[in-house]
Known about the structure:
Elements (H helix, E strand, L loop, with lengths): L2 H16 L6 H14 L8 H4 L1 H7 L22 H11 L5 H13 L5 H7 L4 H13 L4 H8 L5 H14 L2 H4 L5 H13 L11 E12 L9 E2 L7 E11 L5 E7 L9 H7 L2 H8 L5 E3 L10 E2 L9 H25 L11 H20 L15
Parallel strand pairs: 1-5, 5-6
Antiparallel strand pairs: 1-3, 2-3, 3-4
Helix pairs in contact: 1-6, 8-10, 10-16
Amino acid sequence: MDRQILRELVVKNALEVLQNVLPTNITEQLERLDADEEEGDDRSNDLDEDRFFYEFFTSQTETPKIVVKQETNESNESLTYFQIVEQEMMEALPITKYNMDLLKLIIEDFGEITPNMLDTLNVPTIDQLTNIFLYSLMTNEDSKQTEETLILCEGTVNKVLTMICAIIAQKRDVFIHFPNGKEIQQNVRQFERFTEFGEYEFYNVFGALGTTDFQIKPPLSKYLSVPATDGKNIMYTPIKWQCSCDVSGFLQSSLVLIPKKENETKNSYVFEMNPLKAKLEAIKTSEYYLVADGTLTLIPFLLTPHEKLLLHAEQHNRALESKRKIIDKTFDKIRSRFTILNRIELRDATSICNLVETIGILHNFFLVQNDELYMAEFSYQAL
């Protein structure tokens, strides 16, 4: 389908979904885009042209709530068996149809998926490519089961994951970014309201820092190999994912590290490698802090637990934990939605890092979009 026609169809569908929700000036943005096209404005990045919905949402002080229309069920008589199966699978994902279509458009606008790539994968359309990608990330099926269900060639799922994750991970700074001065102050106010122990309160906390681990079985060659703790004599390579987030669970930073030596498994080592450290050092004179666990100590711009012998240490630690556990809840949320993290099958270190970074990007994307299905049965305010 012609790209301009596809754009018009998605925009038309989005406007129908968002009618009576967004301000009327979204029409002005459409007119501005059309005017730029008529003037022959050759932009270096197609993402700036068609991602205006995403930019519009992120510019709002309050993200508008998207209410998806309930469409009548169309007859499946015109669909093939595999189209029906694919349709049923996508309906089972924790993503609204609108956000799924918007994500497809954004992936296409990154401009790196060519017809030759689709031919190589034997996947006819970008829609099907994105469906395979999302289904692989968010279901309990491994790659072999997905390929059997959709009658895909062996290895197609991992090739799709490798290709799309490499494309999306390059745009990480668009979706995962360290807060600016205004955002830091806003985050501080949110953290001040979020507490379970009012008798001992923190000030100038703008985020929570944490690290989570994943396992790659069997272990990767040239990387650290450690035995599992379940007594089954199974070896694996650990993955360290260190992130910080605000009260809503929005990731402010992300670093994925695959250790090659034993000392590289320490959270303190990961932090030394994390670009976040330099950013914190740049603002430490302003007395803003992240809360962290006891594995990161003696760092002036992190608030960590005190030893029990200190005065008021217990109150301090309880109050700190009430804020710090937000990052743990965020990791739990991500793991529950992106179940592929429990069964990573990719065997290339770069592809694995891209996969984890992509999951962080999608997490932020669905939070910004206020996706009702993604956020269902989960509330950060109810921690």
